[in-house]
Design goal:
The longest helix is centred in the N-terminal third of the chain and has 15 residues. The mean pLDDT is 93. A five-stranded antiparallel sheet has the order 4-3-2-1-5, sandwiched between helices. The chain has three helices and five strands, in the order H-H-E-E-E-E-H-E. The chain has one domain: Secreted effector protein ssei fold (Roll), CATH 3.10.670. The protein is globular. Strand 1 and strand 2 form a beta hairpin. The chain is an alpha+beta fold.
Length: 108
């Protein structure tokens, strides 16, 4: 089963809000792990030009991809069920959130 099919079958919040990632990221990580994917929780941090933290967000990392079902809370143009290579994910998060930088790190 593809990652896209797996997350589609789980459903997603139709109107994600601040804090939804705390519930959905671990759910997605567990579901993908149960399907045999090497999925891990990851922390997404947006920073301004002075390096101050603007937001902290949770998603799922699978290899060199990010799976995020709650990013739409930042901007309606972001996908509801988002699977993207890390560089593309970072680029779009910077673009749609207006921060200076975004980092993605696996949560140990």
């Amino acid at each position: 089963m593809s990652i896209e099919t797996a997350i589609h079958s789980l459903g997603t919040p139709s109107d994600p809000r601040d804090g939804d990632c705390l519930e959905w990221a671990p759910l997605i990580t567990r579901a993908l792990t149960n399907l045999g994917y090497a999925a891990e929780d990851c922390l997404v941090v947006g920073r301004d030009a002075d390096d101050a933290i603007v937001f902290m967000h949770y998603a799922t990392a699978v290899g060199h991809q990010v799976v995020d079902c709650t990013a739409r809370q930042f901007h309606p143009a972001l996908p509801l069920r988002w699977v993207a290579p890390v560089p593309d994910y970072i680029h779009d998060m910077v673009r749609y959130t207006g921060v200076a930088s975004v980092t993605v790190a696996v949560v140990e």
